[in-house]
Predict the 3D structure of the following.
Amino acid sequence: MSALIPPQHGAWAFLALPLALGAAAAPADPVQVLLAVTWVVAYPWSYAALGVSRPRVRRQFLRPFAIWSVLLIPAALALWVARPWLVWIGLIYAALFAVNVAYARRRDERSLANGVVFIVECAGIVPLMWAVAVGGRGWTVPPFGEAPAQVWILTLVCLLVLTGSTLHVKSLIRERADPRYSRYSRAFALASVPAAVGLAWWWGLPAGWWLLVPFIVMLARAYAVRQPIRAGLIGAVELLTFVLAAAAAFLAV
């Protein structure tokens, strides 16, 4: 079953957060539903594709790859028909995915550098939610420079939240024996608070103060949550911070 459904349960929250933040900053449009479906299905497809790229485990991933391809291809084609210019965005994501493949083939897909690539892939969905709502059916990419400031602020919020979460979880699980990750996690959480103050000011006060809430909670959990702790509880706390970030975005609008 693990070959069909990726075992990294926290990754699903990483997929959902940029969709929620993008929805908060963009006008509603049915094409956003297509983008959301394609984006979510692309994750288990990519997990299976990475497995297929590794000769030693290729056989067990062939069936999941076929199943998710059957679901992904129609969704991606429908999205492309609705917004042909997405082919250019797709090339960028293909290049980023090539980096993921390279790490997988080296059996180093859990590295921090590969995690940063995934974070960039996720954060890019925030402005895309705006772009598919306002973009036409031609081949010209929407002018991202004309996107409202809120779109870019929430993109930065997404980057900060996902990076902070990645460092925190690594410090408690995979890199728990390396004390540097605890320092990195706490330092990043601390630095994120003044960054969030700047984003709140950019957004406009007083509504922008909502954006500060999840970062205060993340700072508190970086210092309060320590080893030993069950993985399920770690995930629950991280999910709470994601929900707070999404709620803050909608309350600030």
About this structure: The CA atoms of residues 153 and 199 lie 6 Å apart. Residues 58-82 form the longest helix (25 residues). DSSP finds ten helices and no strands in the chain. The mean pLDDT is 93.
